[in-house]
Amino acid sequence: MIKEKSLDLTKEISSDIPQMKHLYQNLFSRGKELRAEMVSQVASSLRISKEKSDKLGRIVEYIHQSSILHDDVIDASPIRRGSLSGWMQYSMKRAVLAGDYLLAQAASDTADMENIPLMKITSEVLKKLVKGEWLQDSLKNQESMNELKKVHELKTASLFQWSLRAPFLVAHRYDDDLHKCLNQIGLMMGLLFQRADDLLDFDIRNSENKSSFKDMEEGFFNSFAVYLSENKPEDFKTFLKSCRSLKEIKAFLGDKEFERILLSFDEINELIIKDCWREIDQLKRKLLKSELSLIEVLKKWPTRLYWRQSV
Question: Which residue, among 267, 298, 31, 19, has the nearest Cα to 165 in the 3D structure?
Answer without folding.
Answer: 298
